[in-house]
Amino acid sequence: MVGAGVLGLAVAWQLLLRGHSVRLIDPGLDSPDPARSGSWAALGVLMADVFHRSSGRAWRLRQRSRVLWEGWLADLEASGHPVQRRRGLLLLADGPAELERQQRLVEQRQRAGIPLELWDPAELAALHPPVPHAAAGGLYAPRDGQLDPASLLTALWQEARTRGLDTSRDAVASLERSGRDWLVRCRGGTSHTAAWLVICAGVSSSALLEPLGHRLPLQPVLGQALELQLANAPEWNWPGTCVWRGFNLVPRPDRNGGARCWLGATLEPGEQASAQSLADLRGWAAAELPWLAAAEVVRHWQGLRCRPAGRPAPLLEQLEPGLLLVSGHYRNGVLLAPASAEWACQQIGAGR
Ligand SMILES: Cc1cc2nc3c(=O)[nH]c(=O)nc-3n(C[C@H](O)[C@H](O)[C@H](O)COP(=O)(O)OP(=O)(O)OC[C@H]3O[C@@H](n4cnc5c(N)ncnc54)[C@H](O)[C@@H]3O)c2cc1C
Questions:
Q1: Strand, helix or coil at 261?
Q2: How many C-beta atoms lie closer than 10 Å to residue 180's C-beta?
Q3: CA–centroid distance, residue 88 to ligand 1 (Å)
Q4: Which residues face 177 on adjacent strands?
Q5: Going by CA atoms, what residue is nearest to atom 16 of ligand 1?
Q6: What are the residue boundaries of the structural domains of the chain, listed by start?
Q7: Which CATH superfamily hosts domain 6-41+152-217+310-350?
Q8: Could you tell me the distance, in angstroms and rounded to a whole number, from the CA of residue 38 to the centre of ligand 1?
Q9: Is 208 exposed, middle or buried (0-12, 13-18, 19+ CB in 10 A)?
Q10: Count of CB atoms situated within 10 Å of the CB of 40
Q11: pLDDT, tens digit (0-9, with 9 covering 90-100), for 110-158
Q12: Are strands 323-327 and 197-199 parallel, antiparallel or unpaired?
């Protein structure tokens, strides 16, 4: 396994549960560079039921992940590694056209037995602290929600270690065929052989695979996010995370007496963070949510998403015998980790 983000850890854990021996190689392992990793920067928002499509691969992966998350979280908790999770997500509508689309989605989902609800402006007006006045209504998804990425990554790491995960704190420099196996050479001078190689190295996956003739352009899209401290802890009665005009507002009633929330994330093509994008995010939040205007920024972080160029996310591919790519999850790597790991395990199980 190359890469110890949420995808690498998820695949490793699931392979170990199925009796495979796994070595995970990453220069960061349990102490990654948050600015380079997508996973440690994520907000952990899970948007499965509110997804705008109702068929196709992306829909199936989201729904499969939603189901698997229930079991995964229960298993992690039972093993002594609980993950902080908040159920519920409210996707606010930007105007009448968006509200109509939401109405159609609710009808469609309810016919399929999926519990989505349409909230009207009166229901939004009862929320505290207030959501943006411009919201015309909203889609409430009780089964969607948010996971705390740090507690998730720690839980996966500890659980995989308990199950016998072998690790190497190094950066992979090259991949070569060696008979029926793979030879992995690392920058620190170590080398490893394996029958199967799973590449979960985020945006670095392209550079590792190109010498093998696999051209898979993956583009970095940087995201910045903020943890805000309110002067007084509000009596939060939101039904979970709120999503408004593409930004997530994640109440953190568990932090500092309930006076904290997360806000993000910016979408910045490339690897360089822009101070202007961050200022725009802060200014936007203050304009839309006046109660946030005086909030103090207590933490600012950034990370890289990995977007496949010209291909739908994610990239789950067996590139050649014994070589799997599990990457390119763009904005939904946390959500899609379980279905992606299941896919990888099926490939390896079938080829054993
Ligand atoms: C600000 C922000 C907010 C986000 N919010 C959400 C959200 O709310 N919900 C959601 O589902 N998703 C969210 N995402 C997306 C999600 O974080 C990513 O899709 C996911 O983390 C990708 O995980 P990964 O394991 O593929 O990659 P990464 O987490 O980037 O991990 C790749 C790993 O590969 C390692 N690596 C790289 N090169 C090498 C090498 N040569 N040798 C060995 N190891 C190597 C790196 O050190 C790193 O640890 C967000 C992303 C960002 C940036």
A1: strand
A2: 8
A3: 24
A4: 182
A5: 333
A6: 6-41+152-217+310-350, 89-143+220-308
A7: FAD/NAD(P)-binding domain (3.50.50.60)
A8: 3
A9: buried
A10: 19
A11: 999 999 999 999 999 999 999 999 999 999 999 999 999 999 999 999 9
A12: parallel
Q: What average pLDDT does the structure give for the chain?
A: 95
pLDDT 10s digits, 289-331: 999 999 999 999 999 999 999 999 999 999 999 999 999 999 9
Express each pLDDT in 147-156 by its tens digit.
999 999 999 9
Task: Name all residues whose Cβ lies below 6 A of ligand 1.
Answer: 2-8, 25-28, 32, 36-39, 41-45, 171-172, 200-202, 204, 208, 223, 225, 264-265, 303-306, 327, 329-335
Q: What is the pLDDT of residue 37?
A: 81
Task: Report how far residue 35's alpha carbon sits from residue 296's, in angstroms, rounded to the nearest whole number.
Answer: 22
Angle in degrees, CA 294, 297, 303, rounded to 5? 140
Q: Are strands 137-147 and 45-46 parallel, antiparallel or unpaired?
A: antiparallel
Per-residue DSSP letter, 35 = T
Phi, psi at 227, each rounded to 5°: -105, 125
Cα 124–chain centre separation: 27
Q: Report the C-alpha gap between 311 and 335 in whole angstroms.
A: 19
How would you list the strands of the sheet with 197-199, edge to edge?
A: 197-199, 323-327, 315-320
Q: Which of 6, 191, 241, 262 to probe ligand 1 with, by most ligand atoms within 8 A of CB?
A: 6
Q: Which atom of ligand 1 is nearest to the CA of 305?
A: 53
Contacts of 238 (CB under 8 A, 6+ apart): 88, 90, 127, 128, 131, 251
Specify the DSSP class assigned to residue 187.
T
Domain 6-41+152-217+310-350 and domain 89-143+220-308, same fold? Reply is no
Task: Read off the DSSP letter of residue 207.
Answer: H
The CATH class of 89-143+220-308 is alpha beta
Check if the interface score ipTM surpasses 0.90. yes
Tokens of 164: 């016998």
